[in-house]
Amino acid sequence: MTDRPLRRQPLYSQIKQQLLRRIGDGEWQENDALPSEWDLADELGASQGTVRKALSELVADGLLYRAQGRGTFVAPAPSEWGEGLLLTPGLFNEQPDDLAREFLGISRGNASDDMAAALQLRRAAPLLRVRQLWRWHGIPVAVDEAFLPADEFEGLDARWLRGSSGVYQALQQRFGIRLKVLCEQFRALMLPREESALLGVTGMVAEAPALSLIRVSGSMEGVPLEWRQRYCLTHNWAYTARRA
Amino acid sequence: MTDRPLRRQPLYSQIKQQLLRRIGDGEWQENDALPSEWDLADELGASQGTVRKALSELVADGLLYRAQGRGTFVAPAPSEWGEGLLLTPGLFNEQPDDLAREFLGISRGNASDDMAAALQLRRAAPLLRVRQLWRWHGIPVAVDEAFLPADEFEGLDARWLRGSSGVYQALQQRFGIRLKVLCEQFRALMLPREESALLGVTGMVAEAPALSLIRVSGSMEGVPLEWRQRYCLTHNWAYTARRA
Q: Which helix (DSSP H) or strand (DSSP E) does residue B11 occupy?
């Protein structure tokens, strides 16, 4: 029972981990093509069938995608905005504008009862708390708090988050885990004090109504892994979902 | 050029209209099975091929659906709530509750510039304005205004709307047009005065924040046909979309 070979992963699984690590290290960027199965098999000293099995699992996990006749590519991380886009008030006929993200910090905390229930964790389980601010042409429009199970994502730090386009890209690159949205809830609330300050809402309009989004995201298998709370200012913008 | 036969619709198209009229008259309700192609062909004095063509077009229009090996059924109208559901505050773990709808009235008006643009109509085009109130266990939670091009839906009246489960069912039964959501926009706003009164928000909390939803729906081909404005109270409820 102490033999190492008994605990060794199957070869395709080792190859999978190795490819993930190389993607994480930036050898292949989002939407870059991987070498062909032939070339990978050659380079890794494995059969083409073994390489194909590793690639197929990574496609199933959402980390790679195939394009008919063109090869296998690194999947871009899902948008931090989900299917919703923040637009200017010219409703329905504007192109989505690029939002600039500012990483505010990462800290540790404990799950509230709502979070613990949604993330299927024990009460007051340790969480990582990642804060981000979104600006539109320099103007703050939204502030995010993402809460992640600390035990699952040990080692996620400010360096990874600052160097990525957001939480989802960091998780994909650092942990090989792609998140998908499981549930989103919208409410209209008065903006809390801390978020008011971050969004520059002061003085007369300190009591601004804000769109509150709570999103639970999880693995491709549906295991919840993120609780996100977002506050958006919507007097000049709207949260838009297109379905056409 | 005055011959009636020249202007006569092809037989499958006549059968389509006839089936739509019978669905509209309530001969077959939502999720009822239609007679078999054989029986319909027999009854209508047409070939089975002609009946099949009529049924296939109604399936493509979203008004009927087929169940493998079981037959062809009348499609239920889409939910007035879209994919969003109004829930109690126990986030993410509650079953959606049945909302009771109250038809408030139908009137005529003119398109605002935003509406005209979104519905691809001329400025100040005539619209039908349908108002509905939604209650949860008797408590008002949301109020809707649906604006429809008056020229498209001449004859839509209070009788049809009162007898249906909502605008979408009335359009499907009365006009044989199934709507789908093209775009939805969420904002947080202070509740307007008229809606405050309808939702029973008075006194101290007359300045309540409300979730504003603007939805543009259209035909299966994507032609916009409805502008809907909804105000929801979300201090005790949340607008939820599940995607898992």
A: helix B11-24
Q: How far is B210 from chain A (nearest CA, A)?
A: 5
Are residues B187 and A234, on separate chains, in Cβ contact within 8 Å?
yes
ipTM of the complex: 0.79
Is B196 buried (19+), middle (13-18) or exposed (0-12) by CB count in 10 A?
Answer: buried
Cβ-contact B51, B57 below 8 angstroms? no
Residue spans of beta strands (DSSP E) within B111-179: 126-136, 139-149
With CB atoms and an 8 Å threshold, state whether B243 touches A190: no
Q: Which domains does chain A have, with CATH numbers?
A: 4-74 (1.10.10.10), 84-241 (3.40.1410.10)
pLDDT in tens, A227-242: 999 999 888 778 887 7
Q: Which of B145, B132, B142 is nearest to B201 (CA)?
A: B142
The residue of B91, B120, B217 whose CB has the most chain A CBs within 10 angstroms, and thus the best one to mutate to test that interface, is B91
Contact check, Cβ <8 Å, A117/B92? yes
Residues 6+ apart with CB under 8 A from B105: B130, B131, B158
Residue type, B165: S
Which residues on chain A are in Cβ contact (under 8 Å) with B186? 84, 186, 211, 234, 238-241
Structure tokens belonging to residue B129: 């304005």
The per-residue pLDDT for range B75-123, each reduced to its tens digit, is 999 888 765 666 655 565 555 567 889 999 999 999 999 999 999 999 9
Residue B91 with chain A: CB contacts under 8 Å:
114, 118, 185, 214
User: Hey, what amino acid is at A24?
Assistant: G
Q: How many angstroms separate the CA atoms of B110 and B107, rounded? A: 10
pLDDT digits (tens), chain B, 244 positions: 344 454 578 999 999 999 999 998 889 999 999 999 999 999 999 999 999 999 999 999 899 999 988 999 999 998 887 656 666 555 655 555 678 899 999 999 999 999 999 999 999 999 999 999 998 888 898 999 999 999 999 999 999 899 888 999 999 988 989 998 888 888 999 888 888 888 888 765 557 899 999 999 999 889 999 999 999 988 877 888 776 5
A168 vs A146, A161, A206, CA distance in Å?
A: 10, 9, 31
